Amino acid sequence: METGIDAGLNTAVERYYDITLDLYEDLWGEHVHHGFWDPGEVPGANGADRHAATDRLVRELVGFTGVPAGSKVLDVGCGIGGPALHLAGAMGCRVEGVTLSARQAARANEKAQAAGVADRARFHRRDALATGYPDEAFDVVWALESLMHIPDRPAFFAEALRLLRPGGTLAVATWSVRDGELDEAERDLVRQILQHQVMPDFSSLEEHESLARAAGFTEVAAVDWSAAVANSWDPSFAQIKRFEQGRSVMRQLARERGVDVLGFFHAGPLMKKGFDTGVITYGALRATRPQPRDTEVAALVRPIADLLREIVGEDDAWLDRVGPGTRVDGDLLAESHELAAWSLALRERYGDRIDLVEYVATLDIDRIIALTVADVAGYVATRQGGTQRPADGG
Ligand code: SAH
Fold it and tell me: To test ligand 1's pocket by mutation, which of 61, 85, 99, 152 has the most ligand atoms within 8 angstroms of CB?
């Protein structure tokens, strides 16, 4: 499918998080992700200890990826907003969160209101691959334990690159599998986990790194946190007080909400086995959207201006008066139909990810008036970079 969106899976994921919202909230509070512990640290089983560990995972991911305070963040798969409230609260970030579950989005907005950060953290029911945000809208794209639910991972990385400004940061933490071949028993374990947790498949950490590079990211690095998070599935620990009575309560829940709800309970022992045997892994990944290099931009200025020269029907002397700092609107008085023709010519020459008209539409009026030929060259260089630059070329 061209969009990479799997409607059937999305419906199942939405349903899963709709019907388990209160169960997760009882167990983990506002965080719907693993906890993080030091090697050898024995987890305390009460709610406060669990909460400290899940809070810590958020801070570890901030630290590993270098999310800057005050940055503009897209939280892909935001759950009920736990991580986003940390980013918007303590760190003063502006966060847009998206989740497939309308109930999660509503709960997250309630929590933002209660925490007094509703002006900086907003949550929506949207698909990660169709958020509708313009190019370069964010400093950080943050995906904490959501990527496992997205089958088209190349599309996810391409979309993250599009949404980040040049120099922006991708921050991912994800469930994963051991790299390389698995045997039949291992594959069977993985199959059961995927089924209960509504996930299409797992990638290894190494595969995630390759996908990030292939999409055009640079400064790609991953860290294996399997040992730090595995305690989350400790049986004495991953229990909900209300459900300690056991099977009868589970049966009743399944009657009320449908059998999918049981995935919440089945995950525990399977994930524990997965971590114990090393089949299931867990890690974080950071990557940077590269800045176009100055030399690259400089080399594009003249050929790009030449395309416009042809459109406006000027001669070579005109071209000699055009430099990097020449303003398209102010100095060249380019009309919108000329801009549209230029956009097409740029696309023909530099590839179909280039749409100058669409780009200009995302700018505010002051930036449109100030737009220079070098800005256009920078835009072309950035859009080309996403598909054509070799891995880690910067
Ligand atoms: N990041 C949150 C929640 C993790 S649970 C936390 O750490 O607390 C996984 C989340 O990913 C859910 O909110 C689910 O709705 C979301 N998700 C899964 N696939 C998605 C998709 N295609 N688009 C948007 N959100 C998605």
Answer: 99
